[in-house]
Amino acid sequence: MNWITNYVRPKVNALFSRRETPDNLWTKCDECGTMLFHRELADNLNVCTNCGHHMPIGARERLDSLFDGGIYSEISVPEPVTDPLHFRDQKKYTDRLKDARRKTGEKDAMLIAEGDMGRTGVVVAVQDFSFMGGSMSMYVGNAIVAAAERAIELGRPLILFSAAGGARMQEGILGLMQMPRTTIAVQMLKEASLPYVVVLTHPTTGGVTASYAMLGDVQIAEPNALIGFAGARVIEQTIGEQLPEGFQRAEYLLDHGMLDRVTKRTDLKDELVTILRMLMKQPAAVRGDLPAPDADAASEPIQAATAPIKAD
């Protein structure tokens, strides 16, 4: 794909030429079926411009959209034992890890970084659902602990974006042990009087929901995100009743007091900056690239720029 195909919409006759048209120029919205030009979709953070449906977004793309100018520094994560249980199902666990790393280009299902967001220093942890379903592993536990320790060291708030199907089955009890570990990491932030804000994205389920994903000082979710512990079918079979429409979706949880906000992805950065600066007792963020006005100068009366008009 060159710069012409990257920015210029293909003409109608080009759509029928398979040799001249790359396959990834257009994306079909899963909700409304609208064909979306790839550049416009990326500029809108993978949110459908027609119906507002939130499509998956990569962990690095999310970090680029949050930090000022897309500039941030990654935080190193201690490497755990690769395959402590020597687990094997249809494939070896080590082979599954190699496949996931080759597919995503990442070490595991969590990225952590530090930088400025709206000129506010933050530490951000993003769960990558494309890496084995964002499953909670020992590496993910180490990443959250490292993010909390770095936030305390810098005196910055921690923002966590959750997206997972639960604990990683290939690590067994060691994966489940990350639930109490990450809970202690969150408690460390609270004892340091630092905000911990969670943004729940689609989907957030299982042990992740039962631990660090629901412990935020402020709980925000993206529209129509699936959030829950057990699946809806399991719950229906257990209680013997049909669940209400929209059960375990972000809007339903908001109506029932489990969330504080449901915010569009395109509005999320500004809202996070506003909330964090309030929690950190900092002045409101300055919009744009202009410096903050001087407090003394702002209190002085504005002088007339032109001479008064004389009556004839």
Describe this structure as you would to a colleague.
This protein is α/β, with parallel strands linked by helices. Helix content is 34%, strand content 15%. The chain folds into 2 domains: 22-55, no CATH class; 56-283, 2-enoyl-CoA Hydratase, Chain A, domain 1 (Alpha-Beta Complex). It has helices spanning 3-7, 12-15, 38-43, 59-66, 93-104, 138-154, 172-176, 178-191, 206-209, 232-239, 250-255, 268-279, 295-299, and strands at 26-28, 35-37, 73-74, 110-117, 120-127, 158-164, 196-204, 218-221, 261-262. Strands 3-4-5-6-7-8-9 form a 7-stranded mixed beta sheet, sandwiched between helices. A two-stranded antiparallel sheet has the order 1-2.
Which descriptors apply to this entry?
312 residues, alpha/beta, 2-enoyl-CoA Hydratase, Chain A, domain 1, 2 domains, seven-stranded mixed β-sheet, two-stranded antiparallel sheet, 9 strands, 34% helix
Number of helices: 13
Q: How many structurally independent domains?
A: 2
Beta-strand residue percentage: 5-15%
Give the C-level CATH assignment of the largest domain: Alpha Beta
Assigned CATH architecture of the largest domain: Alpha-Beta Complex
**Main sheet: strand order:** 3-4-5-6-7-8-9
What's the average pLDDT? 89
Task: Give Rg in angstroms.
Answer: 23 Å
| Classification by helices and strands | alpha/beta
Residue share in helices? Answer: 25-40%
The parts where pLDDT drops under 50 for at least 5 residues are 301-309
Q: Tell me, what's the shape?
A: globular
Distance between the termini: 69 Å
Number of strands: 9
Question: What are the secondary-structure elements, in order, as H or E?
Answer: HHEEHHEHEEHEHHEHEHHEHH
CATH-assigned fold name of the largest domain: 2-enoyl-CoA Hydratase, Chain A, domain 1
